[in-house]
């Protein structure tokens, strides 16, 4: 697993290997999985120099070469799905079933990247539409930005890395990835697989280390022409202040709402919102955090929702029977506990859960959460969902839009007109009709409004962000 990969690179190219190490621990029992290097600022500078040279190599790779490498890497990951899944599950919070899904999605992400590489095209331009330009003709094309710096979080340690590395390689860029110090093994495993698939050295580099030491170096370096960041709002705002004049793509989380109207399919709405709230122990930027249920269905919905939550099986992540594992650290579980306790102290009602055991926090359902507590305003990033009773769609949309975030939202209804009202009026990057907010495929544009970020991911759309438009015009001689 991680040990095998680190040992293969030890003595070869792995930044920081001779100095300090970061222990990667299983949050379930705090057992040591592996230790990875803690690179210094100086070593990050050295890695960036090599990655900048890699940008020249990447830009000169033919499209068919990029495609072949990405397809080979996808094949290798598909063959080794269980190895990747166990790595994801052990270093993070996902159960083995959740981790297998992430590994399969990574395969899709790389295949999509390979296919989109052939479609990085431009268009001809009719220059003679402007008087005096009769003897000119030309076109525009899309060209790689050069070196991309990527900073990735712990919650999807493989596929979120693939969503940055796959499009970067497809577009002819080099990429230097700084993964979460909590879950670096999946990123190392992916980079090693790309290398095994034929990607030249320097095109995809992973540097493990503490963000406080190497993050600023990565963000500020003028050779880095784009930063692709997934993480929290505060960190995102800090990056925008430090990065200077370079491209920024940011996915900064959410406080996702779902509206359930009286005419909804009750069973479908309950199953989808429970899964959306507690997938990966709620550590999911698309996770359902607020559910607004129309009055006529509220009591039946709440009863069915709680009944389903109480069947959730919490425990060993590697067990096929487990529905939910621990949070990423006990510190995160303590934070979630504090937020819930604050809401209860200010008048919220506890319907289920509210109990912590180490890094485990029970699936928790609240009602009557007051507006002036953190749980109502911020992203909980834990297994906590709040139910609200609303009179009608107008109130539901109004309440959903009160959040400063706007990543995705869901609505359950059989009424097409009401669906389109939600689509028009919800201030979010995506509206899922008869699905919870927690729905995504890797080919769709993904990103949000307001505090949820800048730009869009999703392979084709990430490639657009990772390329620059260049205009070419020929002035022809008159005959």
TrEMBL record:
<dbReference type="InterPro" id="IPR015590">
    <property type="entry name" value="Aldehyde_DH_dom"/>
</dbReference>
<dbReference type="InterPro" id="IPR016162">
    <property type="entry name" value="Ald_DH_N"/>
</dbReference>
<feature type="domain" description="Aldehyde dehydrogenase">
    <location>
        <begin position="19"/>
        <end position="472"/>
    </location>
</feature>
<comment type="similarity">
    <text>Belongs to the aldehyde dehydrogenase family.</text>
</comment>
<dbReference type="InterPro" id="IPR016163">
    <property type="entry name" value="Ald_DH_C"/>
</dbReference>
<dbReference type="Pfam" id="PF00171">
    <property type="entry name" value="Aldedh"/>
</dbReference>
<protein>
    <submittedName>
        <fullName>Aldehyde dehydrogenase family protein</fullName>
    </submittedName>
</protein>
<keyword id="KW-0560">Oxidoreductase</keyword>
<dbReference type="InterPro" id="IPR051020">
    <property type="entry name" value="ALDH-related_metabolic_enz"/>
</dbReference>
<dbReference type="InterPro" id="IPR016161">
    <property type="entry name" value="Ald_DH/histidinol_DH"/>
</dbReference>
């Amino acid at each position: 697993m991680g040990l095998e990969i680190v040992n293969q690179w030890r003595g070869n190219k792995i930044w920081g290997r001779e100095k300090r190490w970061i222990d990667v621990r299983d949050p379930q029992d705090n057992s040591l999985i592996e230790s990875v290097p803690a690179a210094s600022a100086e070593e990050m500078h050295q890695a960036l120099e090599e990655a900048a040279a890699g940008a020249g190599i990447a830009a000169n790779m033919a499209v068919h070469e990029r495609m072949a490498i990405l397809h080979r890497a996808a094949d290798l990951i598909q063959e080794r799905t269980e190895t990747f899944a166990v790595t994801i599950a052990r270093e993070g919070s996902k159960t083995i079933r959740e981790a297998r899904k992430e590994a399969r999605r990574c395969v899709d992400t790389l295949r999509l990247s390979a296919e989109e590489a052939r479609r990085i095209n431009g268009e001809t331009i009719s220059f003679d539409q402007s008087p005096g330009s009769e003897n000119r003709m030309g076109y525009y094309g899309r060209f790689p930005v050069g070196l991309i710096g990527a900073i990735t979080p712990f919650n999807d340690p493989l596929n979120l890395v693939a969503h940055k590395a796959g499009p970067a390689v497809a577009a002819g860029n080099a990429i230097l990835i700084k993964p979460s110090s909590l879950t670096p093994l999946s990123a190392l495993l992916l980079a090693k697989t790309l290398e095994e698939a034929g990607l030249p050295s320097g095109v995809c580099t992973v540097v493990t280390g503490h963000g406080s030491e190497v993050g600023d170096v990565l963000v500020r370096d003028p050779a880095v022409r784009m930063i692709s960041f997934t993480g929290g709002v505060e960190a995102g705002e800090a990056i925008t202040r430090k990065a200077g004049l370079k491209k920024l793509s940011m996915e900064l989380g959410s406080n996702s709402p779902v509206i359930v109207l009286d005419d909804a399919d009750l069973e479908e709405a309950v199953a989808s919102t429970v899964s959306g709230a507690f997938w990966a122990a709620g550590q999911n930027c698309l996770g359902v955090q607020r559910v607004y249920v129309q009055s006529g269905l509220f009591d039946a919905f709440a009863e069915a929702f709680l009944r389903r939550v109480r069947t959730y099986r919490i425990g060993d992540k590697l067990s096929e029977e487990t529905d939910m594992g621990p949070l990423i650290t006990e510190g995160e579980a303590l934070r979630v506990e504090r937020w819930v306790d604050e809401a209860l102290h200010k008048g919220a009602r506890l319907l289920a859960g509210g109990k912590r055991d180490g890094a485990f926090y029970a699936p928790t359902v609240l009602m009557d959460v007051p507006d002036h507590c953190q749980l109502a305003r911020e992203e909980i990033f834990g297994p906590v969902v709040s139910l609200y009773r609303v009179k009608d769609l107008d109130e539901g949309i109004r309440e959903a839009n009160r959040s400063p975030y706007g990543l995705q939202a869901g609505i359950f209804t059989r009424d097409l007109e009401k669906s389109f009202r939600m689509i028009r009026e919800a201030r979010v990057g995506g509206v899922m009709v008869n699905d919870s907010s927690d729905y995504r495929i890797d080919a769709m544009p993904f990103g949000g409004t307001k505090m949820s970020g800048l730009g869009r991911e999703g392979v084709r759309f990430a490639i657009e962000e990772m390329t620059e438009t260049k205009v070419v015009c020929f002035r022809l001689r008159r005959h």
